[in-house]
Amino acid sequence: MDDSHQLQEIRARIDALDEQLQCLINERAELARQTAQIKQAAGLGENCFRPEREAEILRRVIARNQGPLSGQEMARLFREIMSACLALETPLVIAYLGPEGTFTEAAALKHFGHSVKTQPLMAIDEVFREVEAGTAYYGVVPVENSTEGAVTHTLDRFLVSPLQICGEVELRIHHHLLSRNQTIAEVNRLYAHQQTLAQCREWLDAHLAGCERIPVSSNGEAARRAGDESDCAAIASDRAREIYGLHALATNIEDEPGNTTRFLVIGSQAVVASGNDKTSLLVSGPNRSGLLYDLLSPLAEYGISMTRLESRPSRRQLWEYVFFIDVEGHIDDSNLTTALATLKERASFLKLLGSYPRAVI
């Protein structure tokens, strides 16, 4: 058989498989629609998104995958199929720190798929308020970066918000220098989020030492300004470059090649266990010798692994601090329940922020 006939056979098989895939995807969509109708008829609420269920499905996709596509790539395909199926009955409204083109938007689409309705907002406070008011089902906000640490505005908001953490997203961050201009020599002002300026500090010192650096609310806002103004540039994503019609004067200018930001999905409902979860909490006590040891020792005593610890001023009393803690496990796990009961006895303030699936893709 010559090459042309072999190619024709392969293409015919691809066409047949495409037809089968299309039928199967539509069959899955119909079952998803029936599931939504049954839930709504039973009064189980309009929001059919189940974070733990979706995490379980994606983990199974990765576990059974045998290639040649990677498990992560296959999971991203299933993520979009699930997003489209869910949108048939209950299109989710997802608020995020905008404008368009921010990494928070990319995180929202990575977690929920492209069939949701996204709502860009200009401040983290606004994202919380929109979800609290019920005009958005969920919100997505940045919480920490592997290079520059905590996003304190997000942490502080949890002190006063009734919302819970329903999920997390980890996103590799690649920063690009974008401008209307054609060369770096034409740039006199630079816009970017303050965390981004810090993540690219060494590159900027080497290539734009004399340029004025202006922090703004988001990299999307930086790109928007760079699109409107001459002799300036922004640090932002490749999607922002497309949205605002900018040139990439330099790519991947972040100082750390593994630069990653973690985002939190916030909502109003508790999430049941998925089998691989995290729990986040706030805890505080009067300033005294051994306070932190007293607060953390129940976790060690009951075999709870702590993955993160941050402190912030409590804003109630001078030199009093609140500790933000992430641990492995779900609040329904017996050892974690017991540990938190002991912790509550030692703390003057304890607030559970939520148990939620660990990031899958």
Automatic annotation (TrEMBL):
InterPro entries: ACT-like_dom_sf, ACT_dom, Chor_mutase/pphenate_deHydtase, Chorismate_II_sf, CM_dom_sf, CM_II_prokaryot, G/b/e-P-prot_chorismate_mutase, Preph_deHydtase. GO terms for cellular component: cytoplasm. Residues 7-41 form a coiled coil. Catalyzes the Claisen rearrangement of chorismate to prephenate and the decarboxylation/dehydration of prephenate to phenylpyruvate. This is Bifunctional chorismate mutase/prephenate dehydratase. It is found in: Cytoplasm. It catalyses: chorismate = prephenate; prephenate + H(+) = 3-phenylpyruvate + CO2 + H2O. Residues 1-93 form the Chorismate mutase domain. It comes from Nitrosococcus oceani C-27.
